[in-house]
User: Fold this.
Amino acid sequence: MSDGVRIVEVGPRDGLQNERIAIPLEAKLRFIQSLRDAGCDDIEATSFVSPKWVPQLADAASLWPLLPAGPDYSVLVPNLKGLERAIELGVKRIAVFTAASESFTLKNINMTLEQSLEAIRNVIEEYRSTTPDGWIRGYVSTAFECPFEGSIAPERTIEVTRKLFDLGVDEVSVGDTVGAAVPVEVKSLTKMLEDSVPMEQIAYHFHDTRGTAIANVSTALELGIRIFDSSAAGLGGCPYAPGAGGNLATEDLVYFLHRSGVPTRIDPDRLAQASREVLALLGRPASAKAQQAQLSASGTSPR
Amino acid sequence: MSDGVRIVEVGPRDGLQNERIAIPLEAKLRFIQSLRDAGCDDIEATSFVSPKWVPQLADAASLWPLLPAGPDYSVLVPNLKGLERAIELGVKRIAVFTAASESFTLKNINMTLEQSLEAIRNVIEEYRSTTPDGWIRGYVSTAFECPFEGSIAPERTIEVTRKLFDLGVDEVSVGDTVGAAVPVEVKSLTKMLEDSVPMEQIAYHFHDTRGTAIANVSTALELGIRIFDSSAAGLGGCPYAPGAGGNLATEDLVYFLHRSGVPTRIDPDRLAQASREVLALLGRPASAKAQQAQLSASGTSPR
Assistant:
């Protein structure tokens, strides 16, 4: 917790997973080390998905024992096979995922929504029985908009969110996977969620595809949400729109929070340094996002 | 007016003025024609500044008589010399500019704030006496943050805004020139402005340098502001950070408004087309912003 607001840094997992350039284990560790040095204390480090699905994260099991001490690390776990690896390594924080849209789960993980919840039930039961002190996050993707179905009614997102809590997750991250949501939608979903789920266990995961991410954070923050996901340098994002704005950049989130009078433990200059390093690694040293990172770290922010 | 919200398209002036590639008159006219076809009905077309300052807009007097009929066009006028050209051409909408920060006016236009207001007084008196049906917009730059002085107290912005109204402008555009402001600042400035100036004559001019522009628009909209400046494809912006996010992109503004249930007369697909054309002209066909424009124009917006 960073004085009220918790930032979950998803760069090493969500950010890197769609990158085509193979990133060596050493470089990933340096990136995570830099994030830690910048003050990121909650990092989604990698994923125990099949290397066939996500070759970039095939080194997950090698990475895990080498992570620098300090932050809380979590790992994405798609199924019982991935969970086995997590349990073997003693992982204490896992994340499971599904979506509010049936079409999305079918195309993304080749399961119906019902099947995906059933798979999550099995993962949670197994994890709880072997790891009583384990902590579980659930992701609900396409919470506002599905690339295949269009707008998603809040009722559908709420139903899936509630089912995840019923299955025993400790927190749900509600994701605007394609970056379509605007504040009126965030307001209406948040107010409806309030009636049925514990608000202090809700995170929002916004994408800045169309410039609305900070507006959505601002609205959610006003309504009492205190957990936000973001990715250093805005890495990652919607695979359906390569090159376009992806995850909310941690730089922008931290800038917005600090300037709004909400302190965090993250040092913007060191964060910009971490972003510069990973962007250079990915062959994007001069991207606008890197400059933006430096701007967001610049002295205009009253820290 | 577009059903309540008026969008002032500043791309042809504010967007192009810092571009290094010389854009032929023909291409500028095509750009403006495309903006008109997209539904932009209020366009800042060019500037009667000295060609020495802004070579890109040296063709202002040639451009003016060729503008396609339909939209309201305005022209930036820095001084009496520029005004003479405007009067000769029968321009009915001019814009004058100053800033909330003394250091900025000194470095930007080599005048103290007082001198710049005096120059504006002369321009307004002359314009009113020769053009009784003329309309005048005033710009207040660095309204929240100055690149030289840092944070600007709202009182200073309000003082300059009020002085501009006292001098007889019809509207003031309050500009976050470096793109530093966050919603709490917009809220506090807007509420303070409410007490001293006519709110229906206030426009906001946000930059998206750090991802906060739509959040600021959203906040201002909630507080009753109905005039927003933006630039197609986000062209233009802070000369101190070339390549980084600049003006709020009209695409993002229109996407946000439409998705929020606020209609405008702008057609996102045609706007994206105008942006693609001008970006290609500037040698930036594959920029993330161009893709973003297409995304913002995509069918996910419930029009």
